Amino acid sequence: MKHLLSTADLSKDDAILLLDTAAQMAATQSREIKKLPTLRGRTVVNLFFEDSTRTRISFETAAKRLSADVINFSAKGSSVSKGESLKDTALTLHAMGADAVVVRHHASGAPHMLANAGWLDAAVLNAGDGMHQHPTQALLDAFTIRRHLVGERSGADPVGADLAGLRVAIVGDVLHSRVARSNVHLLHTLGAEVTLVAPPTLLPVGVESWPSRVSYHLDETLEQWQPDAVMMLRVQRERMSGGAGAFFPSPQEYSRTFGLNARRLALAPDHALVMHPGPMNRGLEISADAADHARSVIVEQVANGVAVRMAALYLLLAGGDDSERNTQ
Amino acid sequence: MSTTYILRGVRPLGGDPVDVVLADGVISEITAAGEATVPDASHGVTAPGEATVPDGDVVVLDARASDGSGLVLLPGLVDLHTHLREPGREDAETVWSGTRAAAAGGFTAVHAMANTTPVADTAGVVEQVRRLGEEAGWADVHPVGAVTVGLAGERLAELGAMADSAARVRVFSDDGRCVHDPILMRRALEYVKAFDGVVAQHAQEPRLTEGAQMNEGVVSGEIGLTGWPAVAEEAIIARDVLLAEHVGSRLHVCHLSTARSVEIIRWAKSRGVNVTAEVTPHHLILTDELARDYDPVFKVNPPLRTAEDVEAVRQGLADGTIDIVATDHAPHPVEDKDCEWSAAAFGMTGLETALSVVQATMVDTGRLTWADVARVLSTAPARIGRIDDRQGRPLAAGEPANLVLVDPAAHRMIDGSAQVTASANTPFRGMELPGRVVATFLRGRATVLDGVPVDALEGAAR
């Protein structure tokens, strides 16, 4: 692994290695001294072209816990017509000697360009690109699911385990969601089954070729398919204010049909997890009684995000050579 | 006195070898192979490419194709859809560099699209482009006039003034934008009847394509780029052929790209609608799978479609539903393509690769003959542009010597930086394509010899 661009690039072994490494990282985070010396002297640049305080802080925390030097570079709205190009930014980072670049960009494929255009030779970690991918989000979701559902069920440490046989419903704006795309690929690779639940307007053309089922009905999916985890996607408020081009008639109708609340949750199995990548629109895609439910792991997802990002940085920057990998 | 060229053993439209003599701007004689006599060799016979060719010489061109057979002789190619970028974007292309690239690709006439800065929506701008073309001298430049003022789609430009100008505009297009307002499109179709003009429509329903980046389908869904649905093209074409039928006007559909667009044109023609259609070389060979690496060299409008669409446009071209191939040559400077996909410009160069792509996809596959190639790349576009009194003429004595000599047995590796056009954005770079333009003649004057624009030869000889 030179870069982490898309969960579609991850083999099952890669994915499990990432989750197992994250488990080791998580174990270190309960110690009094959380910092590890692993990446001392290495430079990690957080290159954020889009606002995302949560993801940036999570990556920054992960890099600092591994003793890397962290540089935050936020460049909103960069494009050829508006100031410095992506290429010039990349050349600048290259000249500064960045070892890893964590990139969040509004354009799908921008991390792919950074990794492959020959502009810089740092490891590139995709922290979310347009409507394409957000691989560390999917990894932290899988990590969270594995901890709760594989670990608990077998009563053993889930290290080395996949998610075979588990069912995950992903609910909401699949069309615009990089979280959904990343999760569909990763969960499939790990052996889980996925059902996408959304109004037809919020599903992409071609979704039938994805390794997942599709349903237009949340109640039916919860009751009849019995998912082990229900992952709610954020709905952008601007998606419903587009006049004739709005994707659904009103927030109320969306909430009535696709919003998760305690009543709906009762249709799912008792052990089903409630998940959300955040930030939540309480009252729209998820009600307070679902978000704060005993089965909600939303806050834990955030904590796990740091461990997963530590694992990704570690494997890309320090775990690349085979001798080290073989000793694990 | 102009140079006389004797083309020995060439094969008109791929047929049997003959000798063809070009003198005083016309085809003066066609004889059996080896029988054309060199009139007066006192000035010395010069092999092409050897030295400068002073006026008055007799040049015997006895070049052979790579397999030893005669070169294929075609009427000079005519492009109905070229972006020359001047005035306004001379960093991408100029009339001089674009027509020089056209000559290198075998073209003797190009129609220069109206989306320049300023827009070619007045007699003044079209006359300027026309004059720049005459000064450059590489190929005839026929400006396309904008349908609406500033391409804004709000009110008709002065179509009559452009038609009556020295540029004699007959093709009108807002290319790059669609004339989407139905009443405006109806008026334009009706109005140009007065001077036998044609509206060339860029079929793209704007509301269905807001923010669109690539073909809407499996690939766009996976890689997260906003889709440009096929129906946005098809809906406009369907409306326009019905409008053209209703008002009895002539319609040309630019760069159609989908299987159902071909079906709609086929249906319209079966009803007798006066419609013609074009396909680009890139839509004959490339698919949306190429977007997966986010390389903006493959970003184009209309977008690259699926393999099924590619097969449908090939079939449409083979059975005559699609009348012509036009390049949509769209040069862009490096910085407009060396960036993230959504920030990149739409378009790809095409003048120097068009004939090779048509050979690869249609001739070498047995779907078109060389005579058909002459039809789809020369005679039919000349007729649609109403320049068929000068271009796209038969290969016969007395006809204007607008010609191209092709070596179909040659193969060449495409390299963007080696192109004659001022821009390098070819989607075929790194591909090996068949066929090579050996020589191009514009009214008897060689613009290209040995595959190289003639000014370059002169420079090398100095």
Summarize the structure in short.
The complex is a heterodimer of chains A (328) and B (462). Chain A has 328 residues and is of the alpha/beta class. Chain A has helices spanning 12-28, 53-65, 86-96, 110-116, 135-154, 178-189, 218-225, 251-258, 262-265, 288-291, 298-317, 322-326; strands spanning 43-48, 69-74, 100-105, 123-129, 167-171, 193-197, 213-215, 229-232, 273-275.
Overall description:
Chain B: It comes from Antribacter soli. Chain B: Keywords: Hydrolase, Metal-binding, Pyrimidine biosynthesis, Zinc. The complex is a heterodimer of chains A (328) and B (462). Chain A is of the alpha/beta class and 328 residues long. In chain A, 39% of the residues lie in helices and 14% in strands. Chain A contains 12 helices and 9 strands. In chain A, the strands form 2 sheets. Chain A has a 5-stranded parallel sheet, with helices on both faces. Chain A has a 4-stranded parallel sheet with strand order 2-1-3-4, with helices on both faces. In chain A, helix 1 (12-28) packs across helix 11 (298-317), helix 2 crosses helix 11 and helix 5 (135-154) crosses helix 11. Chain B has helices spanning 95-104, 123-136, 159-164, 182-191, 218-223, 230-247, 259-270, 307-318, 354-363, 370-384, 454-461; strands at residues 4-12, 18-23, 26-32, 58-61, 72-75, 77-82, 107-112, 140-143, 171-172, 198-201, 214-215, 227-228, 251-253, 275-279, 324-325, 403-413, 432-442, 445-449, 452-453. In chain B, 26% of the residues lie in helices and 21% in strands. In chain B, helix 8 (307-318) links the parallel strand 14 and strand 15 (324-325). Chain B has 11 helices and 19 strands. The interface between A and B is medium-sized, with 32 and 26 residues.
